């Protein structure tokens, strides 16, 4: 963002008279146009058709797979058919992780099949691994186990996730998923099993990324479905040794370059300044990636297309990004930040949709105090959608790597009450999406992006950019 | 049932004075004892612990598997530990069907994995079968297809199941499952795919039995999960040929003898006359058989045990039956009917619990008009449980083969609103059961069985026994 950020709102307010007296840099016509976009979207948007197309014609599109390449071509073609006037690719290179096979069963005392899935990044077992299971109720209690106490054992962390509209139950349980394997390996364990990071009670396991710490043995790691975790816990309660057999074939096979797919509606006045909205194009491999994050891609593609359909484009460019490889470490977002770090000053505002397909109920923003009148005006336009402006929140995952470089962000917070019922499972499918809920979100993104692109105010970030 | 059925109520009414004036053959003490059983169960029964034990220590126990033998031993031990004074086995012989492997995918135009499961009884594909899919919206439209029109094709019947408290949506869709393969084969089809018989939208397929008609080619048959059926339908809507690959390895491998496991609380006055309650011990192989029908076994075992705990046993014997192989054609029920057809006159009343774990809301009975005062009295005792006596209903599946031989039956109708969300899927697990709902059912079964066993009235069937 250029250095006039802090000064311009006041100049604009003086120059443009009453309509801008409150410092939002927007005239009545701009506000009316945003309201029109909002109301048009609420009457029916293209978002559901877009996510139907992505999930039907591509389906699962895990980073590193041939399906992601097909998704890339799909996104380019979709941007084109939606009337975006500039479509381009941004390379993202990363190690390719493969899931080849995964099986689990209780061997004794009561033989039973187990439903599980390898965590992203997991290494293989050496053929079938058989070992006794030791249960922990949290990552903390695993960390507290004496060194060597898990030698030759499978550590099983059975921590239940709390359901919450804002997804606040995710943090503690996803930490188990991310760090559990190395913590268990430190105690001598030969594998990690976790209770799925999910709020459902379906016999479908939740995958998701894990990491090995340097210098610690890399042991295979998998998540049991919630009913299977409860089955295993019930069996362990009987006090007899429980032996589980795991056969996981997975691992990193090389590296690949994929692409962030970017579509733009070029601004009429300041085409080099951009408002970024988007979602991530990659998904996990188990479902069809409908809510994570076909919905986000569809909502923002449809919102941008609505703005593109206006007779007069907004001042700044609307840039819709379908990010590559969010799931395995925000790699598309990091590549964007790295490529754009010297041009972050051209970024007016960025917002990502990546929390399912539930209705938006709150607007948050990470902008300077002087930019807040713009957010306030946006909030007024969004209020009829049931959206309230509130402090807090945070940038979307693929936006976050750019924030330290000075990217102002907004968040349109979705109702995620049922998001973790389906997240990272085979159950992430189109039927979980309500078309009208998508329309509400398109309405919000279209109005937000348009007003941010049209305002005379150059929005500044909440905190100064980090040293580069 | 002996020939005194019709006469005895009136004699009893005369002999026993006012308490029996209404013809129910029950005195105030008997009613009070039944109310005590009811209230004791409502304070907490053993049913949940029993189904927890069965699903944890045995889990899936499909007919024909080694796991069913373990379940048999489990049931014998459980009857013993619950204090049943006579435990015996009744042989049931049947062909063994095996599920060895099942895989499906869409090959073109848009390659995707498909979640499916072979229907019980299905034959194998010859390696991987690839064929074009033709969709039908009902069994009727499949039947209406011209002969030969499906030559070399896969028939796909995409009929949605209706959710209903009484399970009335099951009939039409289960007919597709049962008869679809032969109907499709008649038109030349090489395989059948159906939309799962279920009310859920989970990516878990519902298995269940199918039959081949004599003289018609035996083609493999599988059910897609509901989201997969919708995916396939959405793909077909695009008007391009859709090719699916199926690899199903399954079939009948021989025959086996398993056992109905029977536990009895011997009656104090007429030990040779029996009140039968029960559920079926076998399950499908995908889940742990919690709601189908671990719940039924547990409810009736716990109800019988409560009666067994009384200081004074009721007049007649309480016979709790854990039926073998219900799922593949009521084979345990048929074996019982065949073994007992000449002794059906010793059967006072029979009721089976096999509709999940939801609370009971209605009492139905198939008894003679003269026996109805007993049912009316039972209904009065059950009323505080939210149970209403109503016409209609039918005998439970394993009871039904005995009804033509003169078995009087009762039905304690459960709320099955969510039964078909989980029925015959991997999702049939313990977490779907609410312990308090089981207690309500134990209360109802205990009171019903006790009063039927205690009454001076010999309950007669609604219709005369069929010619043997």
Structural description of this entry:
Chains A, B: InterPro entries: CPQ (IPR039866), Peptidase_M28 (IPR007484). Chains A, B: Residues 260-444 form the Peptidase M28 domain. Chains A, B: Pfam families: Peptidase_M28 (PF04389). Chains A, B: Keywords: Aminopeptidase, Carboxypeptidase, Endoplasmic reticulum, Glycoprotein, Golgi apparatus, Hydrolase, Lysosome, Metal-binding, Metalloprotease, Protease, Secreted, Signal, Zinc, Zymogen. Chains A, B: One of its GO terms (biological process) is proteolysis. 2 copies of one chain form a homodimer. Chain A is an alpha/beta fold and 468 residues long. Chain A folds into 2 domains: 3-85 and 266-454, Zn peptidases (Aminopeptidase, 3-Layer(aba) Sandwich); 97-251, Glucose Oxidase, domain 1 (3-Layer(bba) Sandwich), CATH 3.50.30. Helix content of chain A is 32%, strand content 24%. The first copy, chain A, is built from 12 helices and 14 strands. Chain A has helices at 8-16, 28-42, 47-57, 66-81, 139-143, 170-186, 226-237, 290-308, 331-340, 372-382, 419-422, 435-454; strands at residues 86-108, 112-114, 116-118, 129-136, 154-157, 191-195, 221-224, 243-265, 270-280, 316-323, 347-352, 360-366, 388-389, 409-414. In chain A, the strands form 2 sheets. In chain A, strands 1, 2, 3, 4, 5, 6, 7, 8, 9, 10 and 11 form an 11-stranded mixed beta sheet that branches. In chain A, α3 crosses α8, α8 crosses α12 and α10 packs antiparallel against α12. The longest helix of chain A has 20 residues, at 435-454. The relative contact order of chain A is 0.19. The model of chain A is unreliable at 1-21 (pLDDT under 50). The interface between A and B is medium-sized, with 33 and 33 residues.
